[in-house]
């Protein structure tokens, strides 16, 4: 596939915006942060007979690089802080919440249902059900659409959805031989049986099993997949570095300009109060260019500078039926509208979820790319984002891989991730989806748009896209 895609992309018409070399040069240019304006008037995506589900509010604790301030905490501590931040900001009575659902990826075995533990810790009633979902990097997307479905079905009126990840402390297991021996030892009844089992232990039994961000089905790390994808779409190291620099530069402007209002302070026990993300670090192309390839050595193009970093963080959003929100006196931020989940080959198309999900969700809603005012895509790697943008703008790819007559088109950069993205803000696997949705809602209000498109890739070759509609102002 790589050779075929490389040939096709390199031979796209010269008029294609993505084929032009000047594309990468424009990445570092950022649009000015605008004052709030009134949205353009378009049709609403409300459907007859279907409940309107609204986002009342969304928050997140600061996203921090793993191994920093959150290092001594547990995942439910972060999730609890996000829930408490949501409660503080909205003043929603705890007993009004019908259900809580959280997304996570690498689970702490002591709190496997982290949603329940975090909810209890945040003071929610023990009568409020809570469950945890996992779908790799779109886990909190799944949490939100689970809540959306429960409200639309009339099962609930108020749902809190969120996500959490703590990469500072991940489960490290004994080898399988050692685990088997220890479990058998636990069942041994006599001293002789126990000594006999202990005598069978060999030095190699003590070798730990370290977790890896790799596909179980292919044994390939996501970084390797990103490198191959970048090569398939002929995306250079320089283009990836320029896009990553764009992300950090825009995130820095948004942070300093007070745009990241979804961030709530978190007083870390025994440490300082954390108030902002700590991974935003605009560098220079010269410095970025000095880094060695992180995965495919020595010729790969994916480096630490153009990849999202291991991140600790948590997020939470308050979802309600529109009727319930208005009855409680809230002014919602946005409607959650159509959404779509997709799956592809986890080897060759692991990171192309946005490309496949976007045209499907637009067609479902009767919209085109031109109708979208705000794009918020998850940035796993700069190469992954650029590959998706090229694929979306390629008739050849649409016809040969997607079974479509023509391309859906690529998002214009002036509408795309203009407050930074996962490359700069961070990517706590289970929490990013909520950040994307609430950022889209805030940008729609600030920029006077009506429709936002959120999209993300995920491990296993899966992907997600969702349409967010600004609530009438």
What brief labels describe this structure?
single chain; about 475 residues; Peroxisomal Thiolase, Chain A, domain 1; 2 domains; two-stranded antiparallel sheet; disordered N terminus
Topology as H/E string? HHEEHEHEHEHHHHEEHEHEHEHHHHEE
Structural class: alpha+beta
Strand fraction equals 15-25%
Q: Segments where pLDDT lies below 50 for 5+ residues?
A: 1-36
Shape: globular
Q: What portion of residues is helical?
A: 25-40%
CATH class value of the largest domain: Alpha Beta
Looking at CATH, the homologous superfamily of the largest domain is Thiolase/Chalcone synthase
Main sheet characteristics: 10 strands, mixed
Number of domains: 2
Q: What is the number of helical segments per DSSP (H or I, 4+ residues)?
A: 16
CATH topology of the largest domain: Peroxisomal Thiolase, Chain A, domain 1
Q: In oligomeric terms, what are we looking at?
A: single chain
Q: Secondary-structure map with pairings?
A:
Blueprint: H1 2-10, H2 22-25, E1 53-60, E2 64-65, H3 75-90, E3 99-103, H4 114-121, E4 130-133, H5 139-152, E5 158-165, H6 176-187, H7 191-199, H8 222-232, H9 237-256, E6 266-267, E7 273-274, H10 285-289, E8 311-321, H11 322-327, E9 334-343, H12 353-365, E10 374-377, H13 382-392, H14 395-401, H15 422-425, H16 432-447, E11 451-458, E12 462-470
């Amino acid at each position: 596939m790589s050779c075929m895609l490389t040939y096709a992309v390199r031979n796209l018409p010269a008029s294609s915006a993505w084929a032009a070399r000047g594309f990468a040069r424009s990445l570092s240019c950022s649009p000015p942060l605008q004052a709030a304006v009134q949205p353009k008037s378009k049709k609403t995506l409300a459907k007859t007979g279907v409940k309107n589900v609204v986002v009342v509010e969304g928050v997140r604790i600061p996203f921090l690089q793993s191994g920093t301030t959150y290092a001594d905490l547990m995942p439910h501590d972060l999730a609890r802080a996000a829930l408490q931040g949501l409660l503080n900001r909205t003043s929603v009575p705890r007993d009004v919440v019908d259900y809580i659902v959280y997304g996570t990826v690498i689970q702490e075995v002591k709190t496997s249902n982290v949603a329940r533990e975090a909810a209890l810790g945040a003071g929610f009633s023990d009568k409020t059900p809570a469950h945890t979902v996992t779908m790799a990097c779109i886990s909190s997307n799944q949490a939100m659409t689970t809540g959306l479905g429960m409200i639309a079905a009339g099962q609930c009126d108020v749902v809190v959805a969120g996500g959490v990840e703590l990469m500072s402390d991940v489960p490290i297991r004994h080898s399988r031989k050692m685990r088997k021996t220890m479990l058998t030892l636990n069942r041994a009844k006599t001293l002789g049986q126990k000594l006999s089992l202990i005598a069978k232990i060999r030095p190699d039994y003590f070798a730990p099993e370290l977790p890896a961000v790799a596909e179980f089905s292919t044994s390939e790390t996501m970084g390797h997949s990103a490198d191959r994808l970048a090569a398939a779409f002929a995306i250079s190291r320089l283009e990836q570095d320029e896009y990553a620099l764009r992300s950090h530069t825009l995130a820095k402007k948004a942070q300093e300009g007070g745009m990241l209002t979804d961030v709530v302070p978190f007083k870390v026990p025994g440490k300082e109060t954390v108030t902002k993300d700590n991974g935003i670090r605009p560098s220079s192309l010269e410095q970025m260019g000095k880094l060695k390839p992180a995965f495919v050595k020595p010729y790969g193009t994916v480096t630490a500078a153009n990849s999202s970093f291991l991140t600790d963080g948590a997020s939470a959003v308050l979802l309600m039926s529109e009727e319930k929100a208005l009855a409680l006196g809230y002014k919602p931020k946005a409607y959650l509208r159509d959404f779509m989940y997709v799956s592809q080959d986890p080897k060759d198309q692991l990171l192309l979820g946005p490309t496949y999900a976007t045209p499907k969700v637009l067609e479902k809603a009767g919209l085109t790319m031109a109708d979208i005012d705000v794009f918020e895509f998850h940035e796993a790697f700069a190469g992954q984002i650029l590959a998706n943008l090229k694929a979306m703008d390629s008739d050849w790819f649409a016809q040969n891989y997607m079974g479509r007559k023509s391309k859906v088109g690529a998002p214009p950069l002036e509408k795309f991730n203009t407050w930074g993205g996962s490359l700069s803000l961070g990517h706590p696997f289970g929490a990013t989806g909520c950040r994307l949705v609430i950022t889209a809602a805030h940008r729609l209000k600030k920029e006077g748009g009506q429709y936002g498109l959120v999209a993300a890739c995920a491990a296993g070759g899966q992907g997600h896209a969702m349409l967010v509609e600004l609530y009438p102002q």
